[in-house]
């Protein structure tokens, strides 16, 4: 779609999809911190896990999943890695006793990861 000057304009739906995608990535880090904090290994270990779990996920994301990663993994490997990260975070929520939130998180975050790919294929 272009405006009157011939400049390509982004579709509002695509912008919303990207915004939701970013929110799901931030939620991943928050969920991993919550799961790490509630691990029940003692205060020092829980604080350490609350810091290291999201950092580890961010490192993996930055190495092969992020759009500007130097060596971005091709699909389907990138989608598999995302599914593992989102699934691990959801499993942690389930173990913490938040089963409904775990299901909502897993379905929405993995769904948006798939939707981004479907949208990109159609563009």
Give structural notes.
With 123 residues, this protein is mainly α. It has one domain (14-122). 75% of the residues lie in helices and 0% in strands. The longest helix has 26 residues, at 12-37. The protein is globular, with a radius of gyration of 17 Å. The termini are close together.
What's the structural blueprint in terms of helices and strands?
Layout: H1 12-37, H2 43-65, H3 77-95, H4 99-122
Sheet with the most strands, sense and barrel status: none
Total strands: 0
What portion of residues is helical? over 70%
Gross morphology:
globular
Share of residues in strands: under 5%
Structural class of the helices, strands and pairings? mainly alpha
* Rg: 17 Å
List keywords for this structure.
single chain; 123 residues; disordered N terminus; 4 helices; mainly alpha
In short:
With 123 residues, this protein is mainly alpha-helical. The chain contains four helices and no strands.
